[in-house]
Amino acid sequence: xxxxxxxxIRALHSSPCPAWKRAQxxxxxxxxxxxxxxxxxAGHNGLVAAAYLQRLGVNTAVFxxxxxxxxxxxTEEIIPGFKFSRASYLLSLLRPxxxxxxxxxxxxxxxxxRDPYSFTPMLEEGTLNRLPRSLLLGTxxxxxxxxxxxxxxxxxxxxxRYEEFMKRLVLAIDPLLDAxxxxxxxxxxxxxxxxxxxxxxxxxLLKAGCTLGAQLPQYxxxxxxxxxxxxxxxxxxxxxxxxxxxxxxxxxMTSPHTPGSxxxxxxxxxxxLEGTQGAWSYVQGGMGALxxxxxxxxxxxxxxxxxxxxxxxVQVNSEGRVQxxxxxxxxxxxxxVVLSCASPQVTFLELTPQEWLPGAFVKRISQLDTQSxxxxxxxxxxxxxxxxxxxxxxxxxxxxxxxxxxxLNCEDTLLLHQAFEDAKGGLPSQKPMIELCIPSSLDPxxxxxGCHVVSLFTQYTPYTLAGGKxxxxxxxxxxxxxxxxxxxxxxxxxxxxxxARDILTPPDLERIxxxxxxxxxxxxxxxxxxxxxxxxxxxxxYRCPVQGLYLCGSGAHPGGVMGAAGRNAAHVVFxxxxxx
Length: 580
Prior knowledge:
One of its GO terms (cellular component) is mitochondrial matrix. It holds the Pfam family Amino_oxidase. The chain has 20 helices and 20 strands. The chain has helices at residues 19-23, 44-55, 96-101, 141-148, 153-173, 184-189, 192-200, 203-212, 216-224, 227-234, 238-249, 261-267, 287-300, 344-351, 359-366, 413-424, 473-490, 494-497, 506-513, 564-579, and strands at 34-40, 60-63, 75-79, 82-85, 111-113, 118-121, 134-137, 272-273, 276-277, 281-283, 304-306, 311-316, 322-327, 332-340, 374-381, 405-408, 433-437, 452-459, 498-504, 549-551. The strands form 5 sheets. Strands 1, 2, 11, 12, 13, 14 and 20 form a 7-stranded mixed sheet that branches. Strands 7-6-16-17-18-15-19 form a 7-stranded mixed sheet, sandwiched between helices. β8 (272-273) and β9 form a beta hairpin. The longest helix has 21 residues, at 153-173.
């Protein structure tokens, strides 16, 4: 899409051969007629599953329909010299055990941890002696309290207690992420042995309850109440409440006033990187470098990864058991098991023969909530944004706030709710919630000298527009212009710095990355679609109604860029293969 007539976005894929391709030499680089396991889709979860299976001695092949691996965790050079994390753009939730087990640092993964990590500038009149206020948060609690005290001394005193409260909840939830959910189907219909095995899956739940102890009712409220209600109990200043609330609604078609929005906040603060709880980082080389490192680990162990190989159908034999896949070119590949990193909708409504799926199961899958509010805009600029609340230093060198998630139109939770209400009526938000990130502030390899890549994660934009309108180029550019006008109010001169932009509305995210409804999680992270019920009740243990078919993507427990679904599914598959 053009930006002020200053250039057109065009696809450019001329990067050096990635490490995983170099590792995949000889026989592993040639397609064989049969493998032990086939993985559909080279998203990060699919690659994690392949890496674990191959390390366990299961000969595994991965088939990716695009020319590049990574799914939504991908780096694309969409204008010469500018490398964008085109969809997913930050890392925090990747399970530490996966980094260790797969030796991802050895395979090239390098992280740039952000500290400070959050910057919320205010839209208010400055004076000769005072700039507009802003809220800058990082790992230094004393500095955080000083920042918060600009708005409320009471909130500054409460903030450390709030952080400790949330850390305890994260500590309780954390073990639930690394194992399959409780097998409710085994309790109902399983043999005695299966029921005994199912009992072991209760341990993480019991451990979580013990960790929370007498405060369980308060923590239950965090998970089930609107995040606005939870934050109102802790704080009084709107800039702080709205900044924290962004983590409860980001990527979700929910308002801070929506019941259950607290879990989404928890989902975005439960990460841990290099021993730092709650840390978020940029990946050196963009998010695609994470996928490349996982793929390199898998390929080094012998896994085969193929791009531009679209799976058209899952093969099921006459006994109702998976026997492989058929590719779009008609080639058949046999396997003992198939793992799908695709969404539940694509896996079960498009790839799996419907005659082998129970009607009730198909109905539940077709009714999954996949609403997404997100339009991602990737921007190439020729200078750093210069915020009125924090003017740039001489020489235009990045400062601390430039490395943060920069929250715009986020001074008040009412602003977030109004933006949500616009989208519920089929209209793009008049004042969109904007999370602006500048990964090149810490990773200069992403842009030419003096230039930067800017990621705009914006909401709320409905998948279907009101009044019969569609997301054509005119509507997309009208919305992007509105976003840029908002940024201009905080950082005058931003629009003049824009060289080009790439606008991805919910239908674009669905078309390019096969994210259903444009949803970055493959489905809403609402309480009715979590844990026991992800993707649907009685099928949360990665197994599917067709024997030998497994779900290992973000539509399975626990969702997000964690790699946990891939790792957990691989262990379930390995146990099943041993029993075949």
